[in-house]
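Morning. Coffee machine broken again, so started the prediction first thing and wrote up yesterday's gels while waiting. Chain of 725 residues, entered below exactly as on the submission form.
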Amino acid sequence: MEQLRFDNRVAVVTGAGGGLGKAYALLLASRGAKVVVNDLGGGRDGSGKSTFADAVVQEIKNKGGVAVADYNSVVEGEKIIKTAIANFGRVDILINNAGILRDKSFSKMTEQDWDLIQAVHLKGAFKTTQAVWEIFRKQKYGRVVMTSSNAGLFGNFGQANYSAAKMGLVGLANTLAIEGAKYNIKVNTIVPTAASRLTEDILPPEMFQAMKPELIAPVVAYMVHETFPENGAVIDSTLGYATKHHLVRSIGTPLRKKPADPVTVESVMEAWPQVVNMRNCYRLDKIAEVTVDLVEKLQEFEERSRLDSEKEAYWSNYNYNSKDLVLYALGVGASVVNPTDLKFLYESHESFMALPTFFILPGMVMESPIVGKSMPPGKHADFTNILHGEQYIEFLGDFPGTDGEFTVRNYVVDMLDKGSSAVAIVNSEVYQNKTLAFRTQQHVFVVGQGGFGGPRNSAKSVNVLPAPKRPADAVLEQRTSEDQAALYRLSGDLNPLHIDPNVATVSGHSKPILHGLASLGFSARHVLAKYGGNDSTNVKAVKARFAKPVLPGQTLVTEMWLEGNRVHFQTKIKETGNVVISGAYMDLKKIVKGDAALPPETAPQQSSSSSALKSDGLFNKIDEHVKANPAQAKAVGAVYLYNITENGKTIKQWTLDLKSGVVHEGQPKSGKADTTLTVSDSDLIEIASGTLNPQTAYLKGKLKISGNLMLAQKLGPLLKSGSKL
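Came back before lunch.
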């Protein structure tokens, strides 16, 4: 790698007579910088003077470098900058490193102890930086590093004065990073832990020897180099290790139920666990984003309050990725033994997608408090007395992609009295990007909690339908594995009934039983393969009732009846003849008989967002290059189809017809592509810019290739002189 140099740069390093400052000065000088070595020369508490700076300057000169000493206090920072201008005529880099300690417990700390620390650390950095600021603005270049401490970030006993100053430097750097950005002035913060005059009798001797300043100096040198990309960063480094700090905030929660409700001390206490819940915490980079975030949250609160005006709802978030989809597919019997299942098991498959029943999972409420809160007076519901009775899912828009986040609204729409038991009908509305993507409905049986005088039926229920009274039109069977329940539970249902023999015995089963949703997943796969073209996007809705349990290792037999675009089905256990799923049906957009999946190059429906993609400009440049180098293009002699995706869905296609020397939007105008590449718009741009290695993208499933894989490698030389692809 080419050495990073500082030729023709002038650096000012405060507190450079020893320790970290000396290491910074020596390294910068060795890389060509002219250095002002500032050091008042005092002890750790700021008292006394010495000639440390002269010794450092002499060491730099002995090694062929250029440096000058400065003994001014950082509180008179303008004098330090004058030294640089007088000797070198410019300044490019300022490292605010000077510091002292006056450690005392807070009760014993004097005002002088406080003022001295603030003066050297915080005011000193302010004065020196302000003295150089206008120079940086005029030359439209500058690099500043503030020095903070873990005592500032986390606090430390006996260092209230020091901690306050060091955290103050973080705030100063954050604001200067904003003010200096348009002038190419970058301001960052280092949080070092190293052996120095400040720590020589604080750290254990063996640690003091290991914490060499020379291990941190390269980090700071990079932070002041012209190529350093960060601005406003807080970098922690010690012992040859570096990490980044930044502030994050919890998702938080409203402090009242409805917009018209008052905020009370009690409502704050009730909401407090969610206020401080740091799961799914996130970072905001600018103060303007705080305002936008607040407005969005208030709008969301008002919208949720409107939706919840009639029924109290339970809101949650659900994240998923390709690994979750594959794990679920394995849990419901998909296998590499069946080639048509590969699209559900291999994240780099050109047609990789979720099984439709996977999306039942975000709306599951078996562990949600919503059922328990909705029980009639004197009745209760918890994991010991609830059973999953029926399930429904209906897709409302585009089929969800292979990764993403859902916002889920669960609410009890009705409570039925079945005599000995109650049935809670729970609706779930699942939103993605603020759009209702699909809805589900669960019937949750609450054993032993009936007899409260409620209705037996509900008009709000999506009911099961009896199968036609004729022999089944199709039958598929599949044996479950002995480990099926152990595998399926990894998709989120960790009820011990499905894994713990003791719990199963207490519940009246000979061994742990299979999840009802796992059995439904098997059946839905069978219907999809037989009548849905094995294409999940072809599914409109699924409904089923769970009649009896299944033991892992038993064989599931799915019987199907075709009625228009609806496939009725029921599932039996082959070994016993028991019906385990009844009254079930799957509604399809169209019937595609057989096991074949839809052709992978079927033209996608393009969303409105596909009209202006970042990659459009890339393909236009490729077109120019192909036209300028026709012989080079024809030497490749292949046709490539690019499927450009967004949120896992193809939204635009481009063809590189290098046989004819033509690049155009859409599918090949004649014949099929030799090689098809599927990649998201953003990932393609990263590949083209060189920030994402194509091989890495392929191995991580970000770039999917079908057809002639070797031809994909021939694109490199063709486009090497122009856009990388």
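The longest strand covers residues 404-417. Going to sketch it on the whiteboard this afternoon.
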